[in-house]
Amino acid sequence: MTTIMPGEEQLLAVNEEEFVLTTRRIHIDDMDHGSTDLPLEQVNNVNVERRGYRLLLFSGVICLLLGITLWVADPASQSQLLIIAGVFQLIFWWATRSRILSVASDKGAVSHFDVDELSDEDISVLVDDIQIARNKRLNEIKKQKNTSRN
């Protein structure tokens, strides 16, 4: 759970506050790095990508290629088992992929949030809300700098 600071208001929360967008920052319970707070003015990139278990992909391709190679060399061999194992591994890799929202900061930090349970429309709205909040925050900072100069 994130604490709202003075002068800050919560704009939206997703998945029981695993992802919280406020007027000043984004709080993410990161899948890899734990809890992360990114100031909106430091958000550089927001995108949605698919992630799967690379080991399944790699081993599936290796089994498939090895099985096909052995089958071409000797059709009577048990190479069909390697081909079947490779196909199953590739099917499992494809079935276990999930959609991840990645939020990158200009400092190089990248936080990931699982959005597999959200619809495509909800994800699009979430990305738009982040961009809108970021632009508002940058305009607010710009105004503060201009007033402090005067």
What is the CATH architecture descriptor of the largest domain?
Roll
The largest beta-sheet arranges its strands as: 1-2-3-4
- Corresponding CATH superfamily of the largest domain: Pleckstrin-homology domain (PH domain)/Phosphotyrosine-binding domain (PTB)
DSSP strand count: 7
Please give the radius of gyration in angstroms: 23 Å
Transmembrane segments: 55-73, 79-96
Keywords: Membrane, Transmembrane, Transmembrane helix
What does this structure look like?
The protein is an alpha+beta fold and 150 residues long. It has 2 domains: 10-51 and 98-143, PH-domain like; 54-95. It contains 3 helices and 7 strands. A hairpin with a 4-residue loop joins β1 (10-14) and β2. α1 (54-73) runs antiparallel to α2 (79-95). The two termini are 39 Å apart. The chain crosses the membrane at residues 55-73, 79-96. Keywords: Membrane, Transmembrane, Transmembrane helix.
